[in-house]
Amino acid sequence: MTDDLTLPAKPQKKASRWGLFGPVMLLALICAAWSGYWFYTAGRIQAQVLQHQKALIAAGYQASFDPIKVTGFPYRMVIDFHRLNIISPNGKGFSAPELRAEANAYALDNWVAAAPQGLTLYRGRTGGIDRGKVSVMGNGLRASAFNLSKPVPTVAIEGDNLVLAASDAGYPLPFTTAKTLEAHLRPTNNVPDSADFMLNFTGAQGQPKSLAGDFGASKALSLQVEGAISHVSTLRDTGASSAWAAKGGQVSAFRLKLVQGGLAPLPANIFTTDCKAASAGDLNVCASSDLLTPDAAGRVNGKLNIEMSGTFNPIDVLGALNLISQENMTIARPLLNMTLATQGAQKFAVEFHDGGAWIGPLKVSDAPILPY
Please, which residues bridge with residue 181 across strands? Predict the structure, then answer.
């Protein structure tokens, strides 16, 4: 007799569906968490903008814009301002019919902004006199600000084919048209509370009594200025050059390069103005100073080394740069004509001290004064 030793079959387990639905559920949770983060952050940004507006108004500013709403879900934060006006108690500020500011939702320390319909700049009051406003139009008017939580952020302003118009002809602008404009600000390496600055414009032209116009309305002008400015926090917190001067503010490593009749393209490293580099212009002017400081009255102290080359009259150049005043031009011209060449390379220094600008023993004008 044979015994049947066959074991009964074990019941089969049901196949797990986690492998099928698990990734979907995980993705849904991530999307829900991100959506929650985005809408919470968008609400917080909108509240901060309105809170900042109230703080500006309490400080005496004019600060107004149409109701705003943060958009850009899911990856960006976008704020569209319409009829934006920000004007300080001293009359300086700006307005824009439209300004768009946006940032990546995961990098809220970095923002970019664009003004497709241009800007209006308010020039403020000097000595109680309103200097009017400036209309700024152009292609690609834009700005960026990075590392806003740092003491000194990195800021850039750019524009192409600019057209500027001043409301008061008594206060002419340095130029009225320009092919390009770039301005940059960045922290100075290893120097706290200091920032490097750079301003560059090319292909500029202007009306008489303006910087570009006085150098010749028929030929384009290009200019690059750079240096380092101390006590940036005082300027940021007060917005007043008088407070900055009282704190001991100074400008170091100042460099200026002006080319007339040719374009001076921006170098690969924007903070490398080289006054020794040759330029293909009818007039080349370089100026440099190791240190410029304001005195108690806000006038500049320091030494400015100037080098010119090309076709020029040095006295006319100094007049266009406002380094010789019109009332001193008649007195200064015969004396300076004996010491300054009218062709070839020319090097000399302008010294600012005791409230005046001096070439050798001759005072040619008052020293420049900081705008307050």
Answer: 159, 201
| Secondary-structure breakdown of the chain: helix, strand, coil percentages, each rounded to the nearest 5 | 20, 40, 40
Tens-level pLDDT at each residue, the chain (372 residues): 455 556 565 555 555 555 566 677 777 888 889 999 999 999 999 999 999 999 999 999 999 999 999 999 999 999 999 999 999 988 889 999 999 999 999 999 999 999 999 999 999 887 778 889 999 999 989 999 999 989 899 999 999 999 999 998 888 888 899 999 999 999 999 999 999 999 998 999 887 777 777 776 677 888 899 999 999 988 887 767 778 888 889 999 999 998 887 555 545 455 555 555 545 567 888 999 999 999 888 899 999 998 888 766 677 777 777 777 777 777 666 666 655 555 567 788 899 999 999 888 888 888 988 765
Query: Which DSSP string corresponds to 75-132?
Result: TEEEEEEEEEEEE-TTSEEEEEEEEEEEEETT-TT-EEEE-TT-EEEEE-EETTEE--
Give the H/E segment covering residue 18: helix 18-58
339 φ/ψ angles, rounded to the nearest 5 degrees: -115, -20
DSSP reduced 3-state for 23? helix
* pTM as predicted: 0.82
Rounded Cα distance, 324 and 357, in Å = 8
From CA 185, how far away is CA 198, in angstroms rounded?
7
* Cβ atoms of 141 and 160 closer than 8 Å: no
